[in-house]
Amino acid sequence: MPDTTETTTPALDVRGLGVRLEGSQILHGIDLRVERGKVVAVLGTNGSGKSTLVRSLVRAVPVTEGSVEILGAPLGPAVPWDRIGYVPQRVGASAGVPATVAEIVASGLLTSRSLRKPRDWRARVDAALTEVRLSHRRDQAVTELSGGQQQRVLIARALVRDPDLLILDEPVAGVDHPSQEALAATLRRLVASGRTIVVVLHELGELADLISRAVVLRHGRVVHDGAPPRAAHGHDAADHDHVHVHGDPEPRSLPPVLPEHLFSEGA
Ligand SMILES: Nc1ncnc2c1ncn2[C@@H]1O[C@H](COP(=O)(O)OP(=O)(O)OP(=O)(O)O)[C@@H](O)[C@H]1O
What we know:
6 helices, 12 strands, 22% helix, globular, binds adenosine-5'-triphosphate, P-loop_NTPase, ATP hydrolysis activity
């Protein structure tokens, strides 16, 4: 009998997740189930716990309560990590290490199980760099690139794995509009081929048409899980907190889908 586990289990199944860091409870009882082939945006104000959530999924911070299953396996060595791409929040691609763009991208092909690059690694690195439009920078030191270009190198490092699950933490922060559009096209292509994407965002921006589900965090809790809220027409400033149903043709004529205070820090 064929093994159907791979396609029937969700890409991500988070239940009652709690994370405590340095004595503070950062995440409280997070439930998040993402079926394969879906895109989910994680939204919320600064400090609401978005990065901590995705960092807990890749074991960068410890889970203190609840359970996490990724691609059908409990968080741990059984997870097929080589099938998962992770783009951390902007940190600079080199962290002070003098490496070329191609070397950084190729490092995405190494896993804890194998430190040997696959035979076709050069072609895969070239394809990933073409995807983020940085082929011409291939042999340049990554430290010579701008912040936005370094972010694209990190995206290429995740893409080179051809991941089933792609987790991105604010991938478009500091990235110009043409590059955002290029990333949106890449993500669209991945979703069309059945990949799953979890993406932390401050605003939907160029990725808006890709996202039909948003999970909003506030003070480490999920306060909304559904159609993405968006700023009301004409109220797109970063410090404005009106939110309306996505796709509403007359946003001013409908009440907000979420309370106005949801995106404000102090409430
Ligand atoms: N290692 C840590 N130790 C203690 N507290 C932490 C640690 N990392 C994050 N925090 C705290 O956890 C809370 C959530 O931080 P997190 O970075 O997850 O938020 P965020 O929603 O991603 O914010 P931003 O939009 O600014 O990136 C913040 O109050 C932060 O100070």
